[in-house]
Specification:
The chain is built from 16 helices and eight strands. It is α/β, with parallel strands linked by helices. It has an eight-stranded parallel barrel. Helix 9 (175-184) links the parallel strand 5 (159-163) and strand 6 (190-195).
């Protein structure tokens, strides 16, 4: 099954003139079977044709570990007071996260999607620039196990797929850590959503799409039998090595000096976009990756500024996959 990512955010739907029928036409044009949705509020949901909805990308809080561990002094400092904390998490108690994911889980069941995607990672704004992490993969994985086991019932037809990132958490660079994590998750219908860009970002030495593909194939080989847990693949490309290896401390100081919260947010998002590109994986070796994994779900997770750019991206990705 080959899908594309989309959200019900107005900025995304404006590419399709706010009409899901245009999305359906786009899917047909590019031989796609449906969408993986990120759901914001309730916009456009009343006209969403359920047949195209195959997966739900769950809510993601990049910074959540300190909050879940009830270190409110640190969290309050990071978000400029408890008002900022409430705005970010939707509450001021750690159980807010449990409730948020329970809601997402119920929404996935109501939508009757086939799978959900859960980001397994944690990073503070500061550390996204400095990479001077004061938390480990194991700490993030253990806290995620606790949160997931509290928020999700153990039995459901909806698959729960855990996505790798390049920050501390599930990086897929350590087979034993990843296997231990999955073993501790009580949810039975579970697996991995392999994000190709996120895996490439773990190696800033990569310069070309071919090098990226060869690196991914090597990482998959090192996973051994854990490879069988990969049920889905987010297909995209990122080669931000030069940017990753540069010094971003001045950028971070500029953000700290920015008084407007929304402006700070935009600057941080701009930084992340320079790392995680979401452009087509335009090398034919991408098909070798897919053939190696044999996933149930292939998701073209691409971001474009307008319809024309997205249309071009999809054509490029289909060509690299040998579909046109």
């Amino acid at each position: 099954m080959i899908l594309m990512n989309i959200s019900n955010y107005s900025g995304d739907l404006e590419k399709f003139e706010g009409d899901w029928k245009n999305v359906e036409g786009f899917l047909e044009k590019h031989q796609l079977d449906g969408v993986e949705l990120i759901c914001y509020e309730k916009d456009y949901l009343d006209t969403l044709p359920r047949w195209i909805l195959k997966g739900l990308h769950l809510k993601y809080f990049p910074t959540w570990l300190e909050f879940y561990q009830n270190d409110m002094a640190k969290v309050s400092e990071m978000f400029g007071g408890m008002v900022g904390v409430r705005q970010y998490y939707g509450g001021t108690h750690p159980d807010t996260l449990v409730e948020a994911f329970r809601h997402e889980y119920q929404q996935a069941r109501n939508f009757e999607v086939e799978y959900m995607v859960y980001h397994v990672s944690h990073v503070t704004t500061e550390h996204s620039f400095t990479r001077a992490f004061d938390y480990t993969d194991d700490e993030v994985l253990d806290a995620t196990v606790d949160l997931v086991n509290r928020a999700f019932d153990a039995n459901s037809d909806v698959q729960l797929l855990f996505e790798n990132l390049w920050w501390p958490g599930l990086t897929l660079l350590d087979r034993d850590k990843a296997q231990r994590f999955l073993d501790q998750i009580n949810y039975e219908n579970k697996g991995i959503m392999l994000d190709l860009s996120h895996l490439m970002i773990t190696n800033p030495k990569l310069k070309t799409a071919q090098e990226g593909a060869e690196y991914i194939l090597d990482c998959i080989e090192k996973l051994g039998s854990l490879k069988d847990w990969i049920k889905g693949v987010h297909v995209n490309l990122s080669l931000p090595g030069d940017y990753l290896l540069s010094d971003h401390r001045t950028q971070y100081q500029e953000i700290l000096a920015t008084e407007d919260p929304f402006e700070r947010y935009l600057k941080t998002v701009g930084h992340i976009k320079k790392i995680d590109w979401h452009v087509p994986f335009d090398h034919p070796l991408v098909k070798n990756i897919i053939d190696s994994v044999k996933p149930e779900y292939i998701v073209y997770e691409l971001l474009a500024k307008d319809y024309e750019s997205l249309d071009t991206y999809m054509a490029i990705q289909n060509q690299a996959m040998g579909r046109i």
